[in-house]
């Protein structure tokens, strides 16, 4: 009888000197994760975030140094979240990844699974769910090989914001998130999907993130109130890459 393998989730925290060092480290984690997924599954499926922090990482991955280290033909790109704007809009997470990375590598168009921010939020979320169901056919829930997340100063991650019901969602794969003004509405993956990833990479930089980060990574009582603190992979690994400024209030907290 074959022994079943039980994967235990693990958490790692790495503090890097600045955003530049953090981005290089993230690029190397991306390359290694792609190689190991290619070796076992013949494809590498990632979900990426927007925001300012990952820009440099995406640019590095699209640069001569890293571009040839990834087998882009078999990489699939999804998004952890999207803003409800057309894909040409400066606020579009698709546009950011496209300008910095996707337009610079040999990734086939059919491997780009974007969230249609130009649609009505509910429709866009439902279309994205259908896209994931088709792609991950046969799996109970989407299983991304790597999810790249950022954290806002208020502890939000993807487009899961503190105090909103979206963090309680247990059934849907993606949901519309209404933030009061149409151009600010967003679509987000839900916690069960994010936590089903094999590997989660958090990128956090800047002094403005230090206080919330110490709550989330420490024993802070408010931890559960921050969506980023609810990212706990069910079976995968989570790595926090943090620059020195964001790590300012972490004290002795390190990998465990
Ligand atoms: C987005 C995000 C969001 C982001 C954080 C951190 O679309 O804005 O996916 O969750 O990762 O707000 O943003 P910064 O990297 O700009 O600090």
Description:
- The structure is a single chain.
- This protein is an alpha/beta fold.
- 27% of the residues lie in helices and 18% in strands.
- The protein is built from 7 helices and 9 strands.
- The chain has helices at 19-41, 55-61, 64-67, 93-100, 121-135, 191-194, 210-217, and strands at residues 10-16, 44-48, 75-79, 81-83, 146-150, 174-177, 186-189, 199-204, 237-243.
- A 6-stranded parallel sheet has the order 1-9-8-5-2-3, with helices on one face. A 3-stranded antiparallel sheet has the order 4-7-6.
- α1 (19-41) packs across α2 (55-61).
- The longest helix has 23 residues, at 19-41.
- The model has no long low-confidence stretch (mean pLDDT 93).
- The site of 6-phosphogluconic acid has 14 residues, from loops.
Distance between the termini: 33 Å
Alpha carbon gyration radius:
17 Å
Q: What ranges have pLDDT less than 50 throughout 5 or more consecutive residues?
A: none
Task: Characterize the main sheet.
Answer: 6 strands, parallel
Number of helices, where a helix is a run of at least 4 consecutive DSSP H or I residues: 7
- Kindly name the structural category: alpha/beta
The proportion of strand residues reads 15-25%
Q: Which ligands accompany this protein?
A: 6-phosphogluconic acid
Average the pLDDT over all residues and give the rounded result.
Answer: 93
Number of strands: 9
């Amino acid at each position: 009888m074959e022994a079943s393998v039980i994967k235990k989730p693990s958490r790692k925290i790495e503090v890097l000197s600045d955003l530049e060092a953090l981005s290089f480290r993230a690029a190397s984690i991306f390359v290694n994760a792609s190689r190991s997924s290619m070796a076992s599954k013949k494809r590498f499926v990632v979900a990426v975030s927007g925001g300012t922090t990952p820009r440099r990482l995406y640019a590095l991955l699209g640069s001569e140094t890293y571009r040839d280290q990834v087998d882009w033909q078999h990489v699939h790109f999804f998004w952890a979240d999207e803003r409800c704007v057309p894909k040409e809009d400066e606020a579009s997470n698709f546009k950011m990844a496209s300008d910095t990375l996707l337009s610079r590598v040999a990734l086939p168009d059919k491997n780009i699974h974007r969230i249609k921010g130009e649609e009505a939020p509910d429709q866009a979320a439902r279309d994205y769910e259908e896209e994931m169901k088709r792609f991950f056919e046969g799996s109970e829930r989407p299983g991304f090989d790597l999810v790249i997340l950022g954290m806002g100063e208020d502890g939000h991650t993807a487009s899961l914001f503190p105090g909103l019901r979206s963090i309680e969602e247990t059934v849907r794969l993606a949901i519309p998130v209404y933030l009061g003004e149409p151009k600010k509405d967003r679509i987000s993956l839900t916690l069960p999907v994010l936590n089903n990833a094999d590997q989660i990479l958090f990128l956090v930089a800047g002094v403005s993130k230090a206080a919330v980060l110490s709550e989330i990574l420490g024993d802070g009582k408010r931890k559960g109130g921050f969506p980023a603190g609810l990212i706990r992979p069910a079976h995968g690994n989570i790595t926090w890459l943090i620059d020195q400024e964001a790590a300012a209030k972490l004290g002795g907290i390190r990998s465990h």
